[in-house]
Structure formats: structure tokens, C-alpha cells
Amino acid sequence: MTDRISHWIDGKPFTGTPARFGEVFDPATGVVRAHVDFAGEAEVEAAVGAATAALPGWRGTSLAGRTRVLFAFRELLSARKHELAKIVTSEHGKVESDAAGEIARAIENVEFACGAAQLLKGGFSENASTGVDVHSIAQPLGVVGVISPFNFPAMVPLWFVPNALACGNTVVLKPSEKDPSAAVFIAELFAEAGLPAGALNVLHGDKAAVDGLLEHADVKAISFVGSTPIARYVYETGTRHGKRVQALGGAKNHMVVLPDADLDLAADAAVSAGFGSAGERCMAVSVVVAVDPVGDSLVEKIAERMARLRVGDGRDPESEMGPLVTAAHHARVESYVDAGVSAGAALVVDGRGIEVAGDGFWLGPTLFDHVRPEMPIYTDEIFGPVLSVARAASYDDALALINANPYGNGTAIFTGDGAAARRFSSEVEVGMVGINVPIPVPVGYYSFGGWKDSLFGDSHAYGPEGFHFFTRTKVVTSRWPDRSHAGVNLGFPRNS
After folding, report:
1. CA distance 432 to 199
2. d(CA 413, CA 402)
3. Which pLDDT score is estimated for 358?
4. In 10 A of CB 415, how many CB atoms?
5. 282 carries an active-site annotation
6. C-alpha to C-alpha distance for 99 and 153, rounded to whole angstroms
7. For 455, phi and psi rounded to 5 degrees?
8. What b-and-e string marks burial along 358-380, b requiring 16 or more CB atoms within 10 Å of the CB?
9. How far is CA 438 from the centre of its chain?
10. For position 357, what pLDDT does the model report?
């Protein structure tokens, strides 16, 4: 008998009978490990209602009180991070070392949110006009929704939830239905840390749950991470219903290798960034741009390293790359390998048909060379272990290739030339840039986000922009009674 994964509403598991449910697989075996409840209108209403009821008390909690909860949560998460890593591996499939790294980066964001008292300080101007003082305050929005993807079931919720709570909001989190248990584990830890019931709720489901949050009048803001088509839908639907929305979309991340680069370092980076987490990362390198004349040598070095990768069950410490998350996603990614061959790209390493113990969703690391911009393996976000190498005659050609792409999430350049690196970081039209760093995910005290079709909305995730997103500013102008200012004056206020 499989387990049941239910919603977390008002500080406890939801006990109602679901009208619908989904299957959660063990990606390494292909076996259904649990059934997850899918929310309908009643469950959405219950979760938002619990968050609404908890809002006055949590918003009224002092900054010191909110911070104490966040510090306690940070300690619990650190103490139990290995449990959470095992949960992530069992439902997502990534190797446990990768899952542990995901949680370590999540803890950075929690630690940043613990600085709420400093981050929420407003400004004050004494005697801005005669006898008039002006100050600003940052106040919470209210109930906010967080819709997170399958590829980082622990880290991405913790990009948003700690900052939203630190600012005094209450939260309804809708994790991916493919790997939902990490979100419930996080909610349980927050409850143990002292977060009041209803301040964080977890709502499972599919489009019905998403639309319920996007359309609910009591939900004031939405944070989303996922594919670009869905990000666009979430942004347009949410803003149409009067919400503040940050929707982070897809990516096609390029890594430029200049002729002066250390090719061994570049090859190591390409394999690490292309095949970590089986390529199911929005920051994965999916295109290596080899600037003449290094292409042949670089491809050879990448292929050599790929041959040594150990693909297997993520629970095996010897495994370096696990399976894809579902059978449907496996079929989609494999279809792109077929499409690359049909389009005429040179298939250097074929990951199809890899033999791994168990009936999991296995696809080995795959490498294409001589990929052109019109090919589907270049134009589309594949989100799997498929690495493409494109050739460029010069730095300018490589830059033009990246800037012409509709995505603008992350990019990297490998070079020993500081002037070239500085020029690239200035000229490339991408939100996050790495210089000899293949996956330039910002640390917790900066903010994460791309440009162009990789972001819809004005705010990036976590860091300072996270606090900006989850608050609205109020400016208070005050003057205390003074008879010298008595009398009617119909003119526009002037400073004097």
C-alpha cells in the first residue's frame, strides 16, 4: 500500500477526502511510492482562509519574535538536513550529495531572512519642512502564494517562504506534484520552530490549485518558478487579478570558451554544469560556445570526462548522476536527442539506451557538436542531460549568439583575459554572469533572476529584492500641534 501525501493546512495535515490525487514515483525504480492529494476549490479556500486568519497575529508579531522563529527554523533545518536530502532524492532522483548541496544553499536564504530587523528599517528625515518630520515604513502585503518547481523541491520554496514570513506575510505554498514531500517536511519544521498555525500552508495539486491561488481575491502576491510558457501565464493571470507577481521562467544558458582558456578547467565545468542533477536545473549549462580554434580539442576533453560519469540510483554514494524525474519527462528529453540527430547535429555521445539496474527513468549524458541556432536542441529548453556545442569564429560572434537568444537567465565565460571577461560581463544581455564559474547562482545576500523571457515581473528572487517584493512602502509625514501653523491655506504644500 502506498503512502498518502496530504495538504498542510492551519498547522496540521489535512484529513479531508480528496476528489482527485496524483502519483509520486521513485524515479530510480519507476515504482509509485505515494499518492498525493490534489486540491480543488474547497481545499484552496481552506488554505487561503487559514492564512487569512493567521495574518493579523503574525503581522502583529514583533520583528524580534519573527526573527526568533526563523533562527529556530534554521537550527532545525541544519540538524535535519540529511533527512530532507533523502526525501528529495527519493522523489526527484538527484544524487544525495546534490540534494545536500541544494539544502545548503537554501540555508543561506534562511540566514539572510534572519536579518529582517536590519532589512526592514525605514528612513527618517527630521525637520524636512519647518516642524515637519517624514519617515517611511515597509509593511507586509498580506497572504502570498508561492508556486515552486520539481527540480529544487527544498531550495526554491526556501527562496521565498522565509523572506515572506520575515516581512510579516502569511503563505500558501504550492509545490510540484511530482515531488511534494519536501514542502510538507519544511512546513513541519516551521511549526516545530514556533510558527503559528496558518502562517504557512502547503497546498498540493495541478492547474486547479495554481488557478485557485491566481484568482483568489485574498491572495495579494504570487512567486513562481517554472517554464517560460507557464511563467508568462502566471504573470498575466495574476496581474489581471490585481496581484503583484514575480514569475521566473526558463533558460538556455551558454558557456563561452575563449581560445586562451584552460581547456581542462572548461571541460570539467561543462560536464559538471551540464549533467549535474541530470540537467534538470534552470541554471544548467546547455550550450557550450567554443570560439575558434578550440572546438575540436574541447569536445574531445568533454567526451572523455562524460565516459567516466557514474549513472545510478541517487541513494548510492557511488552515483554521480541520477534518473529523470518521471517517465513523461524522460520521453520528452529523449525525443530531443532524436530531433538533434534528425536536424543534422553531430551526436558525439549517445545517452539513449543506457543500462542501469532498476526500471527507472534513465537517460545517460548526451553530447552534440556543430549545433546550429535553428535546431530544436538549441532553441528549446530541454531540461535534461543533453549538452550542445556550438562553434563561433570570434568573441563578437559568441556574444551575438547569446544576445540573440530569447532567454537571459545565466551565462558564463572561460578565459584568462581579464579585459575580455570584464567586457563580456558588461555587454552580455543576461541577468547572472559567471567568469570561470559555470553556474553563477548568486549567494543568499544577492538576488537571483534573469532577463528577457527568463523573468516576468520587476523583482528577482530572494536577497534584497525578495524583501522589496514582499513589502509595500508607506511614507508618513507628521507635524505636531503648533499654533504658528494655524489657519486655512488652499495652496499646494511647499517645503519651507
Report:
1. 32
2. 11
3. 81
4. 21
5. yes
6. 9
7. -150, 130
8. eebbbbbbbbbbebeeebebbee
9. 17
10. 85
As given in the structure block, the three cell numbers for residue 222 are 504570487
Sheet holding 244-248, edge to edge: 12-13, 8-9, 200-202, 170-174, 143-147, 219-225, 244-248, 455-456
Residues in the chain: 496
C-alpha cell at 163: 523572506
Q: Residue 24 phi/psi, 5° resolution?
A: -110, 125
CA 343 to CA 340: how far, in whole Å? Answer: 5
Mean pLDDT by 10 residues, the chain (496 residues): 88 92 96 97 97 98 97 98 98 97 97 96 94 96 98 98 98 98 98 98 98 98 98 98 98 98 98 97 97 98 97 96 97 98 98 91 98 98 98 98 98 98 98 97 95 96 97 96 75 74
User: Cβ atoms within 10 A of the Cβ of 64, count?
Assistant: 9
The grid cell for 294 is 578550440
Q: Which three cell numbers stand for residue 229?
A: 510558457
DSSP β-ladder status, 407-408 and 451-452: antiparallel
What 3-state DSSP class applies to 398?
Answer: helix
CA pair distance 56, 287, nearest whole angstrom: 49
d(CA 390, CA 263): 16
Torsion of CA 380, 286, 104, 76, to 10 degrees: 20
Q: What's the rounded Cα separation, in Å, for the pair 496 and 482?
A: 15
Residue 53 has phi, psi (to 5 degrees) of -70, -35
Q: Give, as one character, the DSSP assignment of residue 321.
A: B
Q: What is the pTM of this model?
A: 0.95
Of 295, 291, 296, 294, nearest to 397 by C-alpha is: 291
Give the model's pLDDT for residue 478.
96
Which residue shows C-alpha cell 502569511? 170
Of the candidates 156, 282, 349, 377, the residue annotated as catalytic is 282
* Cell digits of residue 389: 556545442
Q: How far apart are CA 22 and CA 4, in angstroms?
A: 10
Burial of 487 (0-12, 13-18, 19+ CB in 10 A): exposed
Residue that has been written with the C-alpha cell 508618513 in this structure: 476
Torsion of CA 209, 215, 220, 224, to 10 degrees: 50
